[in-house]
């Protein structure tokens, strides 16, 4: 193994074989695809270990894709049903920990099979990162969502806390800045360090120290949508959203065709989280308003929804194309569709249920991109109030678009990777 020094691309970087390991989630795969395509266009060869049902699509893009090993730990995450933010975090921790030894072994075998020159890992795949750390090869990590790296400036990550303004909120933030890293340690430290010990590497003093190990972390977002973190280290680089999405499959029609009324896109998660109330509240709130509601139901059966008088309900749709015509997004807070809307300056109402969605909602509020209401509280009446507010006061959209475009996107991410060869 080792970078080939005889062949260089037009930017005078060595042409390399790059091995990539994703988590078993489309929302973690899709944001990095633009970067992989950019690297491929520069002459690099991409070897991708990813979600089984995405292998054919990734191979069609020119990558050498192969499926994750079939394991029982690739199961649905029920954090949406947790009674509190801390309980939801514990469920996330359990899933992260279960995968560590298997992901480490799998990526080590993948490295041996593909003989790469460079390694690229999903930020949530701790096992693959350990394999990369011990490989002796140059490597990097990407994050499709906000990083939990500690900060004394921004709100603490993990429980969906907004920017503290009052004395009480600032005191709460100070407590959480200490409590959340301790929760990571309580839930994960013993299990993470056990695998590290097996591989002969030093234990971590704190679990979040794992984010100090990669030579480079590429974050697929940017200020001012993301909070400012002036106290973060230089190896964390924000490049703006990864905007790739698959072409609509056979039989997927354009739900905006022929519609002349203002369009509101309503999205539910493609990973089940029992978010039917979001869509039904939107349909009921907007009935009779003259706005056409396009609902993509994701993991929910479309027949479970009661249509209003001016709507289109489909299981899947091309969100990018729909957003090209949309006046408003009402979404569950998935980073993919949220940032696609931001790049089109579409105002939004976020209705979060779990995962990182509460963090997305808080940043929408803080950046002036729209409004938010927790999924557990959503009703047609409350949602209508938020819709009116989002359509009339979304003052931050221009600045967000400018910041994301200036961050450099896939070309900058690819160059950052090449510089680590």
From TrEMBL:
<dbReference type="GO" id="GO:0008194">
    <property type="term" value="F:UDP-glycosyltransferase activity"/>
</dbReference>
<dbReference type="InterPro" id="IPR050426">
    <property type="entry name" value="Glycosyltransferase_28"/>
</dbReference>
<dbReference type="GO" id="GO:0016758">
    <property type="term" value="F:hexosyltransferase activity"/>
</dbReference>
<dbReference type="Pfam" id="PF06722">
    <property type="entry name" value="EryCIII-like_C"/>
</dbReference>
<protein>
    <submittedName>
        <fullName>Glycosyltransferase family 1 protein</fullName>
    </submittedName>
</protein>
<keyword id="KW-0808">Transferase</keyword>
<dbReference type="GO" id="GO:0017000">
    <property type="term" value="P:antibiotic biosynthetic process"/>
</dbReference>
<dbReference type="InterPro" id="IPR002213">
    <property type="entry name" value="UDP_glucos_trans"/>
</dbReference>
<dbReference type="InterPro" id="IPR010610">
    <property type="entry name" value="EryCIII-like_C"/>
</dbReference>
<feature type="domain" description="Erythromycin biosynthesis protein CIII-like C-terminal">
    <location>
        <begin position="319"/>
        <end position="387"/>
    </location>
</feature>
